[in-house]
Amino acid sequence: MEYTIPIKRIVTKEDLDQFLESNAFNEYIGYVERLNDSIKNLKIDSDIHVSKNVQAILDILETLSAWVKNIPPVENSKSRFGNPAFKTFYEKVKDSAAELFRNLIPDPAIKEVGKYFYESFGNQKRIDYGTGHEANFVAFLLCLEKLKVFDETDDQAVVLRIFIMSMSACRRYIQLMRQLQFDYWLEPAGSHGVWGLDDYHFLPFLFGSAQLLDHKYIKPKSIRDVDTVDAFSKSYMYLACIHFINTVKPTASLRWHSPMLDDISACKTWAKVNQGMIKMYKAEVLSKLPIMQHFMFGSLIHFEGGHPQSEGLEDECGHIHEKKSSLSEPDDNVFALGQEYPDCCGIPVPSAIAAAALKNLNGSSKPRPLPFD
């Protein structure tokens, strides 16, 4: 098989509509739904099978965690925007793909799989992170299955060991992302509809609601009770996410800073929450052009539609531009295919994590307020 480095192909709304009818979309969402089904009613620390290859990925994530510790943030205490040291971390992951995946996947496939991997930790130029980067990590996992590194018997471990957060010493993807968010103050990716339920993530809530599906005592409304959240956050990812939000946004109620989650808590059953999360993921992530214009396709996740975009013509947001062809026109950049420059990424949004961190740095009794406080 000939492997190809993934490129972006979704530029217009028509491209996105074509993707939503494609085999690539069906494969991706089918994989997410299968992972969701595999961990219904399981705790984070449930006794499950962990294969040698799953352990290999865990070891890689642990290696990246050590790199974060060895690449400390640069002095940037006057700003709550992303720390430039993240660019060094990102570059190290990118340059080390061949070494990280040697003996795990075929050498010819490393560049293709590796791109999904290092793109899953955030944007190197903007120093931000959002649901599109999270989607890259799922794409990475899907590629590993297509390469037969994983199979369906690994689904539970893929979610409960590789993906979601645990309080154990073993490093998971979400746990590593929290480390990056805290150490490098990654900004939420975009302020015009590009969002995660906790500023960064979506899938931990989807998978987390599956874990609680038939719980006898913990109900959706239980997220409003701080004691319940604290007591069970180590066992259930949904509650771990709420605990995280309560930690970094402690100055107001869930209703004020997370109204969507507060609305969802009114559902009577976790089954309804889980079904709604799947629908919301399709509608608010996979069907949003500002997110999916950054998604990439190669030989493993294959989509022939849209408009293939070349590397090297991206601005700091990752948008593709090209020079005007007429010599009589001003020598400036226009958006590819003659479209207007997309107002998708919005203004930079300072991290709530950074506000909480500066509270400690300044010795203040109150978190430094965000501009919209």
UniProtKB/TrEMBL annotation:
Protein's name according to its UniProt entry: Serine/threonine-protein phosphatase 2A activator
Coiled coil, from the record: none
Subcellular location(s) of the protein: Cytoplasm
Role: PPIases accelerate the folding of proteins. It catalyzes the cis-trans isomerization of proline imidic peptide bonds in oligopeptides.
CDD domains reported for this sequence: PTPA
Record's keyword terms, sorted: Cytoplasm, Isomerase, Rotamase
CC annotations in GO: cytoplasm; nucleus; protein phosphatase type 2A complex
